[in-house]
Amino acid sequence: MKIVTDSAADLTQEELDSLGIVVAPLQIQFPEGVVAADAISRDEFYARLKAMWPDIPTTSLPSPGVFSEIYQRLAAEKEVLSIHISSGLSGTVHAARQGALAVHDLLVETVDTRTLSGGERFQVLAAALAARAGKSQAFILERLEQIRAASETIFTLDTLEYLRRGGRIGRVQALAGTLLSIKPIIHVDKVDGKYSTVGRERTLSKALGSITTYLERSYQDSGLWVAVMHGQAAEQAEALAENLRRVLNVARLDVLRISPVLGVHTGPGVVGAAVVPFNLMEGLE
User: Can you list the domains of the chain with their CATH numbers?
Assistant: First the structure.
């Protein structure tokens, strides 16, 4: 069984290589041309993003044809799990399903993670580890559902301007306009996989404190795998990591840079965390 995902999963290159995960690249449209999200470094991307302001690039998802080509290359595997960014935020999983219709003699199961970034990463890693160990598709799908229900992805932004200009503000709209200086605390709703505001603060440090409190209340004594994510805000990410180490039962903590394709809509000041009970990531090898 082969695992396919997309650029929004924020997997490291080491994880992709060691587990043989195939990535369908999302793309970024700059004025001078299109760049695959995985073909540009984080810092180069943010330098170009800042140079464009007040304009921002656009993003595009892989076409059904791109997915068909990927699946056809994997035909010898017989089974593929294609695991993607929330359908509430992107049409990627729909394109994957359309692409799968054009492929014969290969069983392709598509999975809507209903999340993104670190939350999506947990599901992809779990599937890849279980597939490598020879677990059945039924086992993997059940475990992914458990992870989806038990995990959380939450973040704050230095500014809402990137979400607003990119048209991705959705239910965060109530904070726009005169409140653009407010630092929102946003999570990905587990029901429909869309952004939803759970709080707001006037400073970034207070917003990081609110994220910490939110997760502490949600998880209490559970042993957790924590992924702290940021765009170009290493100092704030480390501050959040220290907060979470202090109040949560952290079994593992990673600090990651989010994909440029997500950074288009959040800007360099995004900082957040994804968490999952560690026991759901165990017993997969």
Answer: 2-149 (3.40.50.10170), 151-281 (3.30.1180.10)
